[in-house]
Write a structure and sequence with these properties.
alpha+beta, Elongation Factor Tu (Ef-tu), domain 3, OB fold (Dihydrolipoamide Acetyltransferase, E2P), Helix Hairpins, four-stranded antiparallel beta sheet
Length: about 325
Amino acid sequence: MKRITSLAVLFLYWILLQVSVANAAGLPDFPVALTSVNEQKAVFATVESVDVVDARARISGTIHGLAVDEGQEVVAGQQIARINDPKLALRIAAVKARIKALESRETLARTALNRALKLRQTGATTQARLDEAKSDLEVVTGDLAAMIAERRVISEQQAEGVVRAPADGRVLKVHITNGTVILPGEAVATIAAQGYVLRMRLPERHARFIRRGNEVQVESLIPDNAEPGNGRGLRTGIVQQVYPEMDQGRVVADVEVEGLGGFFVGERVRVYVTTGKRSTFIVPAGYLLSRFGLTYVRLKDGGDIVVQTGQRAGGAIEILSGIRAGDVLVAPSLD
């Protein structure tokens, strides 16, 4: 008798516990209805630079003082390397010698002109001799100006031996090493200019769904403020440009998203894009109950039915099968 009484007390306690749990949930009845959701497709996008520029040599010579390596960040105007051409120093020395000789000739021609002017004033020389002296001075002065300009040209060529970064960015490839002989126009380094985008290539059947300004979800390799293994982190990106030309049956689009500077150029990142809409059932997670590896929902009439769940969106879960429009769900209690 005592054993039966104890079981009755436990059963009554269990009943009260279930009621308290159901009341604690505080969820109202939920009418099931079809909801339109975006159909998302996972594709891979590639991290690419908006602009890829080459730092090129402007003179020929031998590379000295190579100052960058692959992966290094550079700023516009930063020295990358120096090209040394010994012939330029010899040409400058020769021009300087010719300038010195022309300066001496100019001094002599100016002295001769002054002498001819004085003699002409006294009538001791002819006008033709005076004109000849003036012409000699003008020729020498012109030759001297040309030599000075030639020296400036050679000095500028020496200055062009310094190869500088054409823009801010990251060095993708260095094409030469110290001691390499290089010709004008050859690339010293390839630089990915700052400003990275995710470049997507989608099948052409999705072309009509991609528009400039659309939002996409970009999966981070390591989620922000999360340890590896704690789930993927998603960032929101904006479709910045959709190219009007198909590339091998694919539509190309650029996605702008923050934080791409920490990725490798050419790295592949998973992106979720919207490719249409579909109708489905979305049920708050509080109306679902897991039991023996199966997921149940409780109808208002008290019956429990097994459902097949799909994607999770925040605090709601997609129901693929098991319920239909018009059903009314109640918060389940622990059985």
